[in-house]
Write a structure and sequence with these properties.
- Helix content is 41%, strand content 18%.
- It is α/β, with parallel strands linked by helices.
- It has a seven-stranded mixed beta sheet, sandwiched between helices.
- Helix 4 packs parallel to helix 5.
- Bound molecules: S-adenosylmethionine.
- S-adenosylmethionine binds next to helix 5 and strand 2.
- Pfam families: Methyltransf_3.
- This is Caffeoyl-CoA O-methyltransferase.
Length: 244
């Protein structure tokens, strides 16, 4: 992590060089009505996904928005399928929406190693994985994700994952990222969720640890020579990264 610390010291997150020289981003032309239309027309019917999200809302009304965005979930499923992925990693499970989507995109002998710290949240997840018939594809490991990532590296999983989804505690994102990249195979894809974190990342008055960590991570990823990356302006902002 020495290279990491020295680069972090050099990054001034509010003095980011503008790399974009095009016209105004297309996103500004999407009205609320068009966005609703996209969400209505763009999501295929899936009673099990809707039930999971509805139960999450009932059980945890204050934090239900932690579930991965509905379109992002379908995007994960399609991406995994089109990559022919067989071995996936998820950091941050909650009640299991994104892992359900990932598992639905995997073949029957595919595997997801899913990491979370909460028995309570993931007990809901297990119920839906069972109902969807995908439990056998998901190996849930309860405990601090960083410890489990270190274990995976020690146990010989480096350079082997086809796909990873990072969606846990934001303060540790940079450490997670630095442990996920060595685990990915060449051409493997990592999606990093919440890179704008409900617009807090661009709010200069917000200097919460989670927000500061996301700013550093975003700069770090863009400069990382081990990968190619693109930031996708949907849901809560997503970095899509592929290992060279
Ligand atoms: C944003 S939620 C994940 C949402 C999930 N991807 C979904 O689609 O529902 C973040 C999760 O990270 C977990 N978490 C927080 N700190 C953690 C840690 N140190 N190690 C592992 N998991 C952690 C929380 O328990 C929570 O379930």
């Amino acid at each position: 992590m020495n290279r990491l610390s020295s680069v972090i010291r050099r990054i001034n997150v509010f003095n980011i060089i503008s790399r974009y020289s095009g016209t105004a981003p297309l996103k500004t032309s999407i009205s609320d009505e068009s966005l609703s239309y996209i969400y209505n027309v763009g999501i295929r019917n899936s009673p099990i996904k809707e039930d999971l999200l509805n139960e999450t809302k009932q059980l945890y009304p204050e934090i239900a928005q932690m579930s991965t965005d509905r379109i992002e979930g379908d995007f994960i499923e399609i991406l995994i399928q089109s990559l022919n992925a067989k071995k996936c990693l998820e950091v941050g499970v909650f009640t299991g929406f994104s892992s359900l989507c990932a598992a639905l995109g995997l073949p029957d002998d595919g595997k997801i190693i899913a990491l979370d710290i909460s028995d309570e949240f993931t007990s809901i997840a297990r119920k839906y994985w069972e109902r969807a018939g995908v439990s056998h594809k998901i190996d849930l490991k309860i405990g601090p994700a960083l410890d489990n990532l270190h274990n995976l590296r020690r146990e010989g999983h480096e350079n082997s994952f086809d796909f990873a989804f990072l969606d846990a505690d934001k303060e540790n994102y940079l450490k997670y990222y630095e442990n996920i990249i060595p685990l990915m195979r060449k051409g493997g894809v990592v999606l990093i969720d919440n890179i704008i974190f409900h617009n807090r990342v661009v709010d200069e008055t917000n200097n919460g640890e989670d927000v500061k960590c996301l700013r550093l991570l975003n700069e770090w990823v863009t400069r990382d020579k081990r990968v190619k990356s693109v930031a996708l302006p949907f849901a809560d902002g997503i970095f899509m990264v592929t290992k060279k």
